[in-house]
Amino acid sequence: MTMQAVSINIPDTITEYTVLEDEKDILTRNAMILYPYIINETISHGKAAQLLGIHKMDLIALYSSLGIPYFDQTKDELENDVSVLKKFRSKTA
Fold first, then answer.
1. Separation of alpha carbons 59 and 28, rounded Å
2. pLDDT digits over 33-60, tens only?
């Protein structure tokens, strides 16, 4: 993957954390740069993974390791969705 340097303005207090050597740390930083665009639905997880040059499941696992869930539903929302799907399935069978 080709890389390009980008200049951004950040507070002086965090500059020491921006110099990364480890590939995993660089991937994590770049994934976090893309995360707001996933949340606001500008891009999908699949597109973000493609931009990062990794498999979608690897990106989902990376976010998960950082405590960011792939599914953001509550248990009640999930149970409601399952109930709706069961009703729909029984009507089409």
1. 9
2. 999 999 999 999 999 999 999 999 999 9
